[in-house]
Structure formats: structure tokens, C-alpha cells
Amino acid sequence: MPVNDSYLDPKDRAYAPAKTEVVMVRRQVSIDYKKTYGGISPYINGIMGGTRARLLFTFCENAEGHDFGKVLRFQVPRTDCPECYGRTEWAALPGETRFFIDTLSTAVELAGISFKDRLPVTVAWVRAHLPDTEFTELDTLVAGMVDSDDYKKRKRGDELRPVFRDDPIANFSDVMWVLAGTPRKAFPEGYVASKHYPV
Ligand SMILES: [Zn+2]
Known about the structure:
- 4% of the residues lie in helices and 30% in strands.
- The chain is mainly beta.
- The radius of gyration is 20 Å and the shape is globular.
- It binds zinc ion (ZN).
- Zinc ion is lined by residues 60, 62, 65-66, 72, 81, 83-84, 86.
- Residues 60, 62, 65-66, 72, 81, 83-84, 86 line the site of zinc ion.
């Protein structure tokens, strides 16, 4: 694993919290490895579709084997049911599925490497409801980055739509979320709407 150290400029603000004199280095580490998405690969394949992208979920119909006797639905998908341990089945979320912010937090200064060039960024747990008569809610939430011109206005219950990276990189960030009704010109750069999920 290549490691490259260099003396850190004494004016760097990383020194500020230190109560005693310290020496700091900038350490750059390069890691190159092959990662597999394993059983959730169909989900990644789905969000890599750009203008034809699909959001896949899994479900388990073994209702008798579940704590509350009902079918369970998972997004991000689970390949094995956490209640009856059976293998789940795959399906695509219909285009009329509705998505809402359930909880949210905003990174203003610090963030993971995958979106540090997009700060501030809001990460929300997104709740999905199927377009059936019961407005069935999926049994898991999916975490997603919400693009917003003013993150301070975002709140629980805001309705979201997915947008997809036009040139996908096989990463969970190939899907982002915008407020329902966001015009195309206000999409995050490099993202497009899927024909299956109008914004
Ligand atoms: Zn099950």
C-alpha cells in the first residue's frame, strides 16, 4: 500500500486544536482493490441505468414466518429475509412510488470522500410508499444524498424523486435525490432523470 508523507504547513488549521507544540504530516495513502457488491449487485445494476435506471427492491412473501404476519419489502435490498431467513425475491419499484424524507442530517464542512466536492450535502433516510390502495410503506429506509439549493429548508416529509448519474461509476452515489418537481436545469451536475421515474 503506497504511503506518501509530507510536512504539513504550520498554518494549516489542523494544528489549531493542539494545546502543545506538535508536528504534523500530510499522509496520502493509495488503496487499490477489487470490491464486489455480491447479492445486492442487481440493485447497483439498476441505478447504473442513467435515463433507463430502475430502483430495485426485494421482498419476502413468507408472511407466516414474520413477526407481524405480513409481507416484508426491503430497499436497499436484502438478499436474505432478516425474519424468516428465506431468500428474498426481486422487483422494480413502480414509477408512481412516492418517496419522502424520513430523517435527515446535513454535512456542511466534513464529509466522506464520495461527496466532499458537493458540500453542503444533506443525507436523508428516504421512506418509500408503493402506489397501491394501502399506500404500502417499504419496511426499510434507504439512505440517500439530497441535492438542494438551500439545505436549511429541507425537512421531514419533503417529497423526493431519484435522479441518476449519466455516466455511472458503480457506486451507491449513482442515485441522488432531488425535491419532487425540480426542473432539469437544477439537477445536480452529471445526473439525469430516468424515464421510469419522472421528477
Ligand atoms: Zn421472510
